[in-house]
Amino acid sequence: MKGVEYKFVVPRRQAMLSLTVSASQWSREAGYARKEVARVPVLVWPMPTSDGLFVVEHQTGQCQTVQPHELTFLESKELFDQYDWSEA
């Protein structure tokens, strides 16, 4: 009997991930500690981890966990069309 091959597909949501850097000392005194420098398109796995983080997959296939507030989900066509999804 031949082996059976199974394919498991996880539905993922399209989102933009905010990339931030730590701000300088003067900006911390002004009330914020991190500054957004870019946004990149990612696919978000459906369930958060037990720590409340989301697993995101970059266009390169690399995965990482991120805080929920770092994501902007692109469910509407208007939001989706605002971003260039082509590879740089």
Structure write-up:
The protein is built from 2 helices and 5 strands. It is mostly beta strands and 88 residues long. The protein has one domain (13-81): SH3 type barrels. The protein has a 5-stranded antiparallel beta sheet with strand order 4-3-2-1-5, with no helix packed on it.
Largest sheet geometry? 5 strands, antiparallel
SSE topology string: EHEEEEH
CATH topology-level name: SH3 type barrels
Radius of gyration: 17 Å
How would you sum up the global shape? globular
Alpha carbon gap, first and last residue:
47 Å
Average pLDDT figure: 79
| Spatial order of strands in the largest sheet | 4-3-2-1-5
Relative strand content: 35-45%
Q: Provide the helix percentage.
A: 10-25%
Stretches where pLDDT falls below 50 for ≥5 residues? none
Structural class: mainly beta
Count of domains: 1
CATH class: Mainly Beta
- Number of alpha- plus pi-helical segments: 2
Characteristic key phrases:
single chain; 88 residues; mainly beta; SH3 type barrels; 5-stranded antiparallel beta sheet; 2 helices
Task: Give the topology, please.
Layout: E1 13-22, H1 25-30, E2 34-44, E3 54-58, E4 63-66, E5 71-73, H2 77-81
Antiparallel strand pairs: 1-2, 1-5, 2-3, 3-4
Give me a quick take on this structure.
The protein has helices spanning 25-30, 77-81; strands at 13-22, 34-44, 54-58, 63-66, 71-73. With 88 residues, the protein is mainly beta. The protein has one domain: SH3 type barrels (Roll), CATH 2.30.30.
